[in-house]
Specification:
Structural class: mainly alpha
Strand content: under 5%
Largest sheet: none
Shape: globular
Oligomer: single chain
Length: 164
């Protein structure tokens, strides 16, 4: 059996805390019969699985600090919608878009080195790929927000004021 280092325990503990928070939220909102908020919990569990999936798929390791940042970023939509952070903090959505762009640009800048391990990768190529990757992921996220608003009655785009 492989011996785990302290960083592995930290990473697994952080992931488990985030998953437990999502599961608690799912159960809490199902008891309250609030299906859209419970669905947000399910989607956050999916988002939490993405970093580990990418690490296995591309055979690389995300640095621990960035890994924790990604985990926190993955549960922020649940906090924003289900726990009304979007309405309590006017800057919440702007913060998520800003940090999301930075995280995805950093991740995208690292991908050319991961994909092409044999040849040296230029700094310009990494920067360009990071920028394009960040824009692409941001565009896909906007489609997710639109889909959640359309199909589940959420207000992730903050174009309607919900008075509850």
């Amino acid at each position: 059996m492989k011996e785990w280092k302290a960083t592995e325990w930290c990473r697994v503990s952080g992931l488990m805390l985030c998953v437990l928070f999502c599961l608690f939220s799912i159960v809490f909102f199902l008891i309250k019969k609030d299906l859209p908020k419970a669905m947000m919990g399910f989607s956050c569990i999916f988002f939490l699985s993405i970093p580990d999936s990418f690490q296995r798929l591309f055979r690389f390791r995300i640095q621990t600090a960035l890994y924790f940042f990604i985990l926190l970023y993955a549960i922020c939509p649940l906090l924003g919608f289900s726990y009304k952070f979007y309405y309590m903090f006017g800057w919440w959505d702007d913060l998520l878009h800003c940090f999301g762009g930075v995280v995805f640009a950093m991740f995208g800048a690292y991908l050319p080195k991961v994909i092409n391990k044999k040849a040296p990768t230029s700094l310009a190529l990494c920067a360009l790929f990071g920028l394009v990757f960040s824009i692409a992921v941001s565009g896909v996220w906007e489609f997710i927000e639109f889909g959640m608003d359309s199909f589940f009655g959420t207000d992730m785009q903050k174009d309607v004021l919900l008075l509850q």
